[in-house]
Amino acid sequence: MEDNKPWALISEVGEQGYIEEVTDIMKKHFQIICHKDFLQNPQLHGPKIQAMFVWNAFPEAEPALLGSLPSLKVVANGGVGIDHLDVPYINSLGVKVTNTPDVVTDATADMALGLLLASARKIVEGHQIAVNPKTTHIPQSLMGVEVAGSTMGIIGMGRIGCKIAQRGKGFDMKILYHNRNRRSVEDEQALGASYCENMDDLLKESDFVVLAVNLTPETTGLISHRELSLMKRTATLVNVSRGLVVDQDALVKALHSGTIHAAALDVTHPEPLPRDHPLLSLPNVLITPHVGTNTYTTTRKMVQKMVENAVAAVKGQPVPNEVKPN
Amino acid sequence: MAMEDNKPWALISEVGEQDYFKEVTHITKQHFQIICYKDFIQNPQLHGPKIQAMFVWYYPKPEPWLLSLLPSLKVVANGGVGIDHLDVPYINSLGVKVTNTPDVVTDATADMALGLLLASARKIVEGHHIAVNPKTTYIPQSLMGVEVAGSTMGIIGMGRIGCKIAQRGKGFDMKILYHNRNRRSVEDEQALGASYCENMDDLLKESDFVVLAVNLTPETTDLISHRELSLMKRTATLVNVSRGLVVDQDALVKALQSGTIHAAALDVTHPEPLPRDHPLLSLPNVLITPQVGTNTYTTTRKMVQKMVENAVAAVKGQPVPNEVKPN
């Protein structure tokens, strides 16, 4: 049957791309072509494409690719972070950029706490001991650090930072935060969070430093040698932002020397790290492969929102989540 | 030469080599002269009559034959709140008190319950393995977890630990159901945002995460068996920070293998550790930690302090803060 739906370029289904279960959402509104198939004949496929869906920074919205998509109306990102997209440049081609805020908030905040607790209570090591064929008795030496009643310092108090604070409060943690702009008194009271105008104060007082900023030129290398040396020797760094927010070489040195106690990272730079990277072999480092939004529920919501944005842009209607350059 | 020491003698299991062990032993030595089981057993006739307190941290086991070697024993002081491993009526019949360490274990255990829940739900152990595996070349998108925020947590056993678990669940905007021998007050329920399920079956049917926080008694042994597991959602996860025997492990294995439930996260099993060929060790959807629910420096220190405090009071004939009376 003739299909009048507009065409969308996507990365791939499976492997590093979309799980099969979400393709139905896209196909409801678009005919889709994967990047690999597109590359077989860009001259043929290019002019049809009105929307490009970006997932895990693929396909890359570079001039070479964009130059072959004369009908493109929108680059619709799956996820809220758009540090990988040159928004001013894409806009200059008359193309909108959209992202998926809000729907990623809860899952990312859950991940931050999951990392914090798994690190603090040595859950990965514990499981390895519990299932190891050589284990003969329960060791009493597997000791963790206390979470309840400790101090959580959140750097970046946007939607995700606030949800992290809410969760920390459930553990009777003392909540400090640092943000470009101070939040309202009502927000602070609701969350029981105290503002640290000077990030140094947050670093000095926190048992768990949680990074929830977006990646910008200002936040690149935000946590480097100096910041790590201000942290307590008993403190843990948790990162659910972007790898580049942290100076990784400085982090390796700090962990090696005991300047900080541990790190729990859902994000690194690059992803994945080179297989000989020192972070992979440090005993006090927990790394997860950028799965902060990886639940079926959240992934579906992200795809729905991504498609919704693209449909609106293609139809020339108001776009719910257009990203405007600062 | 050592000054004459008039402190009473206490029997302990062992002193580990780690710095932390030496630190907590220091707490004990402020009030007691200590002898490890290994040294005691070299000459029970010599050492036995001196001993007025016995500190139990899983070991030594206060079996009748051992207790009979301790004619001056006044107290068996347990480190931890669970005393299912102690025959309290029998020990009491010898004129010996039993004490435990409630309250100080609550937070760490509740933290562990949530740690297990989140690690299971978001596949943190698998994720870490992929992230550090020398063979990993790209980030797979197939590592999918289940949503925690906004899901339903059903707590079975709403004592001190259960309530703290509920408080934490609420921070994740989870819907909280609970089942307990006795319903809690309206104030408690409102403060925690928890709804009572008089019938445990209802809790099992509606929960995405079933969390066990009961103590082990004849009534709670095998509380979760075939029937209960089959009532649970196929997408649900069982989290256990109680005791291994609260769960019928064979039934659990079958339920996990058949997809009757989605996953299990256990800080406790029976026995501990499990035999190395036990099916639970090889199921992909099972997370097990080696009974580390109270294993933080802070909590362990508080447990030892409380254990020693109880023993000091018992030896001096003063009111004992945490005496365990038989039901």
TrEMBL record, chain A:
Keywords: Oxidoreductase, Pyruvate. This is Glyoxylate reductase/hydroxypyruvate reductase. Residues 113-292 form the D-isomer specific 2-hydroxyacid dehydrogenase NAD-binding domain. Belongs to the D-isomer specific 2-hydroxyacid dehydrogenase family. The keyword Oxidoreductase applies. SUPFAM superfamilies: Formate/glycerate dehydrogenase catalytic domain-like, NAD(P)-binding Rossmann-fold domains. GO terms for cellular component: cytosol. Signal peptide: none annotated. Residues 21-324 form the D-isomer specific 2-hydroxyacid dehydrogenase catalytic domain. One of its GO terms (molecular function) is hydroxypyruvate reductase [NAD(P)H] activity.
UniProtKB/TrEMBL annotation, chain B:
Residues 24-325 form the D-isomer specific 2-hydroxyacid dehydrogenase catalytic domain. Keywords: Oxidoreductase, Pyruvate. The keyword Oxidoreductase applies. Residues 114-293 form the D-isomer specific 2-hydroxyacid dehydrogenase NAD-binding domain. The keyword Heme does not apply. CDD domains: GDH. It comes from the Eukaryota. This is Glyoxylate reductase/hydroxypyruvate reductase. It comes from Larimichthys crocea (Large yellow croaker).
